[in-house]
Amino acid sequence: MLITSNRSVAEWGTVFADPVVATATLDRFLHHSHVLTIRGDSYRLRAKRKSGLIKMPTAGDGPPVGSASLRPVTGGNNLQPRS
Questions:
Q1: What are the average pLDDT values for consecutive 10-residue runs of the chain, which has 83 residues?
Q2: What is the pLDDT of residue 9?
Q3: Can you give the residue range of the structural domain that contains 36?
Q4: SS3 assignment, position 28
Q5: Between the CA of residue 39 and those of 27, 28, 32, 67, what are the distances in Å?
Q6: Residue 27 and residue 54 in contact, taking contact as beta carbons nearer than 8 Å
């Protein structure tokens, strides 16, 4: 099963309108699962930047939308957001 979201796990309590329900849902999703966080520009975003429709972010703009990396989330409590 593949689950994607544009919201961070920390926001799921407000999405479900109940932190207890969000925690229980995440507990069932994450039991015996492998979690990958995929961050990076989509092909559409890259194409728009290449064509000049949007500008490249500068160093002062903060992190780019989805900085490219794949990182497995392993061990410990997967419900805690990473900083």
A1: 82 89 89 80 85 75 50 50 50
A2: 83
A3: 9-73
A4: helix
A5: 23, 24, 23, 5
A6: no
Cβ count near 15 (within 10 Å): 13
- Residue 44 CA: distances (Å) to CA of 48, 62, 76: 6, 21, 35
- pTM (2 decimals)? 0.43
> Which of these, 54, 32, 59, lies nearest to 44 by C-alpha position?
54
Strand stretches in 1-83, DSSP E: 35-39, 69-73
Helices assigned H by DSSP within the chain = 12-15, 19-30, 43-51
Q: Is residue 83 part of a domain?
A: no
- Model confidence over 56-69: pLDDT tens digits? 766 665 555 544 44
Number of domains into which the chain is organized:
1
Asked whether residue 80 is assigned to any structural domain, the reply reads: no
